[in-house]
Amino acid sequence: MTDLQESAGAGVDGPAESAAIEMIGVHKWYGAFHVLRNINLTVRRGERIVICGPSGSGKSTLIRCVNRLEEHQRGQILVDGIELTQDLRRIDTVRRDVGMVFQQFNLFPHLTILENCTLAPIWVRKMPKREAEEQAMRLLTRVKIPEQAGKYPGQLSGGQQQRVAIARALCMNPKIMLFDEPTSALDPEMVKEVLDTMTGLAQDGMTMIVVTHEMGFARQVADRVVFMDYGEIVEINAPKEFFEHPQHERTKLFLSQILH
Amino acid sequence: MIDAPAHVPLAYLRAAPEPALPAPIFSRGALAWMRENLFSSWISGALTLILLALCLWLIPPLVAWATIDAVWSAPDGALCRAHQDGACWAFIAKKMDYFRYGSYPQSERWRVDLTEIVGAILIVWLLWPRARRRDIGAGLFFVGFPILAFVLLRGAPPLGLPVVDTVLWGGIFVSLLTALVGIVFSLPLGVLLALGRRSSLPVVRLASVIYIEFVRGVPFITVLFMANFMLPLFLPEDWTPDRLLRPLIGTVLFAAAYMAEEVRGGLQSINKGQFEGAMALGLNFSRMMGLVILPQALTLVIPGIVNNFIGLFKDTTLVSVVGLLDFLATIENAAKDTAWIGPTIAPTGYAFAALFYFVFCFAMSRYQAFMERRLAAGRRR
What we know:
The structure holds two protein chains of two kinds.
Chain A: H1 2-13, E1 21-30, E2 33-43, E3 48-52, H2 59-66, E4 74-79, E5 82-83, H3 88-97, E6 98-101, H4 113-123, H5 129-142, H6 158-170, E7 176-180, H7 188-203, E8 207-211, H8 215-221, E9 224-229, E10 232-237, H9 239-244, H10 249-258
Parallel strand pairs in A: 3-8, 3-9, 6-7, 7-8
Antiparallel strand pairs in A: 1-2, 1-4, 4-5, 9-10
Helix pairs in contact in A: 4-5, 4-6, 5-6, 6-7
Chain B: H1 29-37, H2 42-66, H3 78-82, H4 89-101, H5 109-127, H6 134-154, H7 172-197, H8 202-216, H9 220-234, H10 245-268, H11 272-280, H12 285-300, H13 302-315, H14 327-335, H15 345-379
Helix pairs in contact in B: 4-14, 5-6, 7-8, 7-10, 7-13, 8-10, 9-10, 10-12, 10-13, 11-12, 13-15, 14-15
């Protein structure tokens, strides 16, 4: 808990001109397919951004560019003031400070829950094993599954696995958390436990970008909602305005399709 | 429109829970097992009876040949020539030292024994999952043991161990040495080749592909001949490797190509999400591979890896074509001894060789099954 508050505090005190994430004129192509088109987005420290849009609109690609799981071909991406280039050391630096939660959890099935959570702190942060384990247990308690620490991911439910994935990312004390459709692969009865965990994280001041179809979560937690379609940002607005008075025709169409 | 008879009620409400009942008697026990597995249809019943008859026809004579009709002790081949319907175990017993050490000098054979004992202890330490401090065991096995084996087997005059030229080496310990060196070095080399074949660097990828495809496309005997006769041509004269080392290198290079394809199969079956999960945590390439990807990939291909090990172990018999006196070669040599010559000598020798290879290969196979069960119990996907 304290780790999170510290990192959030650092964001508040930090220089105002250094945003958490800056994307300036970002383009990306998959072969000939133009998947991201002139993306301009600045995420302030401590800000919660929800990205929504139809499937194939480039939402996931956009956040995967932030920790360089995908490479952009034109424009600039600055994460915590560090520009993402081919430089592998910079990429590793950025990845260390940017946690990511995936749709398919991507836990390591050959390691226990505790080992999943201590692997990166021990090998990347060079944290002593005991300290890493204590921290992991603290964060597993935070996501309400400390009793599963000795089990393997395959023995847990989807909701539990996703909460472990969140704890695993938090164990690196990230400054920014990226969520790539974290509830899309879950059975309906498990969505809430994951969203509650994310809401708790947001309340502690974590900088978050969340790609999700959970409009209730967007309304409740987001500072701004970004709507994407055909690889471009169509509309950005505060959630209340976004849902009640969508401006663009495509936003209106999208909202009419998902909110019945 | 529902086409149901009028008497089917639309609504239903359970009043009491359905009790769990024991399984019917016919689905359990030895009789049920036999009915299900041996006599489930008249064809399988007939096959069961035919195979049973075949076993009764083949096994008793074989057992008699190996036991009651066999000659267990004799000073030379005369007794064996007289009992031609049984094995000549006396021959094996008399030649056992030759089978084990080849022409290694008699006074120095304790060095081979010691190496074998230390090696066996370290292997058990390394492979027994519940053993303590396996990291120390691994260190001793991979670093200490090779040095010890080299000093003991080859000799070190300053330590009072006379040098034994590899020309004199032979028998079981040479076979074991070849197999062990092949197994220990082919896996890491195979992993590197597999990673190379998946590399995004075109030169590395091309080199790996050429190596793997070339070696796989050439018979093992050719590789051995090449290692034996061509390796010295490429190296300066003083560097010419020992006559024992050359086939060892050939064995490792050959086995590594097969191992590489096995490992690559494992790497390919690892979900892309595992790579992304590891990368997103900031693990660099070598840590991602070493901590996340390879442990899973190698576990998946344990059957194939052990399969390769078993094949490699038996293929070591081919090193005799370049002049190494391996276990099988000692048997063939011993069978030519005029004192023992006779019709039962060669069959007995080969039966003994078969038994030897079977014991080792079966042990590897059992260990594989044990590890698979253990790993499966651990993670239960």
